[in-house]
Amino acid sequence: MIVCLILAALPWTINPFRIRVFTLGGIYAIATTGLTLFMGFTGQISIGQAAFFGIGAYTSAILSKAGLPFVLSLFASGFITALCGVVIGFPCLRARTFYLAMATLAFNLSMTIIFKNWTSLTGGVSGTGGIPAAAIGPFLFDGIISYYYLVWIIMAMVLFLSHRLTRSYFGLALRAIGDNETAAESLGVKAYMFRLISFLVCSFLAGIAGSLYAHLDRVIAPENFTAEESIIFLSMAVIGGLKSIYGGLIGAMVFTLIGEQLRALERAQVIVVGGLLIFLVIFLPRGIVGFPEKLKRIRMVLRGKSSS
Amino acid sequence: METIIQQIVFGVTVGATYSLVALGFSMQFRAMNLLNFAHGESFTMGAFIGLLSHVFLGLPLLLSWMVTMAACGIIGIIIEFVAIRPLYKAPPLNLFICSIGLAMILRQVWNILSGAVAYKFPPTLGETPVSIVGISIVPEQFWVIGMAVLLMFGVEQFLKRTKTGKAMRAVAQDPYTASLMGISVLRMKSLVYAVSTMLGGAAGMLFAPLAYVTFDMGLWNGIKGFICAIFGGIGSIPGAILGGFVLGLIEQFNSSYISSLYKDVISFSILIIVIALRPKGLLIRPGREKV
Q1: I want to staple A252 with a disulfide (CB 3.0 to 4.6 A). Which of A28, A56, A97, B175 is the partner?
Q2: Pairing relation of β-strands A139-141 and B135-137?
């Protein structure tokens, strides 16, 4: 609740450039929430989120430029990306963990090559520009503040739906698969099917986020959707914490804000982020979401020592 | 006919470097239960240290090879100690994510040190093609293939004959029993990491004259090394070597007969198909894991 109020009040307190950063954080948070739903609950790894993000962005750019209204192109990019997710997931999800990670990475590297070379569709290396501003009916979201609200309202909806999803039968089944797949299958949970559906949800959210990204700067280029970006999505999800749906949001915001603070370091920024990733995996394997729990445990250990 | 043979030779040349990378992957997977995302960076490491010692410091070739191998080994041991060792008891997934962090760091280090410039590495045996029974072959290719085969043979003998090599294999098979036999499991793991980093480095240094040395060469060659490792079933050393040559040949014929622009797309599609058909590699029979 408090977080919502702070987020709603933000645009009046900080300058427009900062608002763009927060908007971007919201967009990343949508895609990362998708990744958290997939990775956290099924215990798998995907290094292909940026490719789906890119498919969503390009779909939205092409459809919007063809004159389709924003809402339609938003949903269209979500659905088309989800379709791609199923097509890719169908063979890849037969493999698990590392194998899946490398397969999705290979998919991402391939997509980057395709984005760069399919010039008639994507505009090639220089990308595609002149994407019209987002508009819902008479409302035109051409300013950064209005767009900020749009993104965060969608983010809130995504978070709400994901919350419902994890509480449903579907979410429970996913968690069972993540904990012990063979045991879950013996109880009649079709693991492969559930993994495929969760991959579909994951790519759907990436597509929505990609569409919002295309309308943010109204220009996109292949370099926004490389394998490195996928690794960044993965880092966001892991840093935030995979076991909670809020992990994606927290990870994306922390990551985007830290990235912004470290702009002065330029390329060394990635080194800090990589270091953070290693540090967190070693000392806080459950991500930032798991921090309060860890703190509680440390306190208990300390208290136990002092009393004995 | 001549062109086909030339292409086979070139494919085998590139494949030999992939094999070395794949060999490192497999060794780490077997002995440490680690799928090392940062393994491709050891490839870049070898190329850069080789470049530094051979071109910028002007050391003779043999000496610069020794320097590169020693440096790769030492850096490997340091990396293992700092980042990998604390995670042996953690789930393998965490180890994998940790190696992603490592890869990010190493890549940026090369990026900053090199200033994102592509360097040319001088060939060892020369680049003017010589004609052997009507087939023109670049001498450099002999050097790459010869060195790679020598290294693979060396590693194989090392694992089979020496006491350390046997200890490594024991650790790979059953770390607990190995520790009861008085083998220091931790030391062996760190040694495996060092040896595989050296292999990756050697592959990088061999590959360097065939293309330019850039900071991001590792990602591509790393994933290709992984493709090769998975061809043969990850963890299988002969499989890794075979996979390297197969991928090198496929790539070469792809780029000359189908499309050089999309050659990597095709290699990656092959990976996805292999994974779909045999999720754990071609030579390993699929089995059910125990609860």
Answers
A1: A28
A2: unpaired
The ipTM assigned to this model is 0.78
Q: Are A106 and B280 an interchain contact pair (Cβ–Cβ within 8 Å)?
A: no
Measured in degrees and rounded to the nearest 5, phi and psi for residue A206 equal -60, -40
CATH numbers and ranges of domains, chain B = 2-277 (1.10.3470)
Chain B: residue whose CA lies nearest to A265: B112
pLDDT value at residue B279: 65
Write the residue in B83, B107, B272 that is nearest to A106 by C-beta: B272
User: Are the beta carbons of B275 and A92 separated by less than 8 Å?
Assistant: yes
A115 lies in a domain? Answer: yes
In terms of Cα–Cα distance, which of A210, A282, A289, A213 is closest to A251?
A: A289
Contact A239, A276 (CB under 8 A): yes
Sequence-ordered strand ranges (E) for B134-224? 135-137, 212-213
Residue A217 belongs to what domain range?
2-225
Token digits for A208?
């929505």
Is A97 an 8 Å CB contact of chain B? yes
In a domain, residue A256? The reply is no
Residue B290 pLDDT: 41
CA distance B124 to chain A (A): 32
Q: How far apart are CA B202 and CA B204, in angstroms?
A: 5
Nearest-CA neighbor of A57 among A87, A24, A89, A88? A24
Give the residue on A whose Cα is nearest the Cα of B34: A98
Chain A environment of B83 (Cβ under 8 Å): 278, 282
Q: How many domains does chain A have?
A: 1
Give the pairing type, strands B119-120 and A139-141: unpaired
Task: Check: CB of residue B268 under 8 Å from CB of residue A106.
Answer: yes
pLDDT of residue A308: 47
Query: Which residues of chain A register pLDDT less than 50?
Result: 308
Is the CB of residue A103 less than 8 Å away from at least one CB of chain B? yes
pLDDT in 10s for each residue of chain B, 291 residues: 777 888 888 888 888 888 888 888 888 888 888 888 888 899 999 999 988 888 888 888 888 889 999 999 999 999 999 888 888 887 777 788 888 888 888 888 888 888 778 888 887 777 777 777 767 777 888 888 888 889 988 988 888 899 888 888 888 888 888 888 888 888 888 999 999 999 999 998 888 888 888 888 888 888 888 888 877 777 777 888 888 888 888 888 888 777 777 778 888 888 788 777 776 656 555 444 444
Q: From CA A133, how far away is CA A151, in angstroms rounded?
A: 13
**What predicted TM-score, i.e. pTM, was given to this entire model?**
0.82
Residue type, A223: E
Taking 3-state DSSP, the helix, strand and coil percentages for chain B, each rounded to the nearest 5, stand at 75, 5, 20
66-85 of B, contacting A, C-beta below 8 A: 83
DSSP state of A128: B
Task: Specify the residue for token string 């698990």.
Answer: A96
Indicate yes or no: CB of A267 within 8 angstroms of CB of B111: yes
Q: What is the pLDDT of residue B197?
A: 93
Is residue A72 included in any domain, yes or no?
Answer: yes
Q: Does A265 touch chain B (CB under 8 A)?
A: no
Residue B91 CB coordination number (10 Å): 12
Q: Is position A276 within any domain?
A: no
